[in-house]
Amino acid sequence: DETEFRNFIVWLEDQKIRHYKIEDRGNLRNIHSDDWPKSFEKYMKDVNCPFKIQERQETVDWLLGLAVRLEYGDNADKYKDSTPDGAKNTDNTAKNAEPLINLDVNNPDFKAGVMALANLLQIQRHDDYLVMLKVSLPERLTQDAIAKASQSKEGLPVALEKHILGFDTGDAVLNEAAQILRLLHIEELRELQTKINEAIVAVQAIIADPKTDHRLGKVGR
Known about the structure:
59% of the residues lie in helices and 2% in strands. It is mainly alpha-helical. It folds into 3 domains: 2-81, no CATH class; 105-149; 160-207. The protein has a two-stranded antiparallel sheet with strand order 1-2. Strand 1 and strand 2 (218-219) form a beta hairpin. Helix 7 runs parallel beside helix 8 (129-139).
């Protein structure tokens, strides 16, 4: 909005930048004047703004930067020791190092997210969602599990869009993760079936009578 933009420029000059003396700000304050664009252009030159009057976004960013720099210069002692809110003391820092401390276990979104994750990873459910995260989930992150997952396997690339998931989680990233988990699960089932078949063949080889010839329909000599 043009009026808001002009008021914004006047506010910056009056409250933060203060490049002009108060008596010299009349033309800039007259935001309803047809000559205001010329006054603003002159103001930009006076404060050495490197952008043109048509480059509004760049001009606003530059003027805000100038205002912040001047504000800091006027109150350097006040701001020099300021720290981010999350690092005001070591206690806060320690708390931030443990993400679970800041979780609201009663938040419906949190519960829904944990349940969706548990379903995808086939984790046993627990009444306490926090316990489910801190106890059940690490079971999937044991050294053996990590080592197994880290083993490189050569294979052909898979186009996920060609595999129908069968349900929608409402999140594209979660859908893709579910597709990957399902494909990995199918691969594990195939490996298990292969091992079962090998075991059956091995057992048959041990207990089979070498005198048996099924092709002739005879047993023994």
